[in-house]
Amino acid sequence: MSDMSANPGQLDLILSDVAHLFSASDPDPFSPGDCEVLGISGFDHLLNRLNMDKSMQRSSTLLLSLPADKASQTDAGPITNALHRQASVRLQEQQRELHNTYRYGWKVAGIALLILALCLAMSHLFASDYTESMRPLMRKTFEYGFEIIGWVIMWHPVDVLVFSPLPIRCRIAALKTLAALKVDVKGF
Question: How do beta strands 182-187 and 10-14 pair?
Answer without folding.
Answer: unpaired
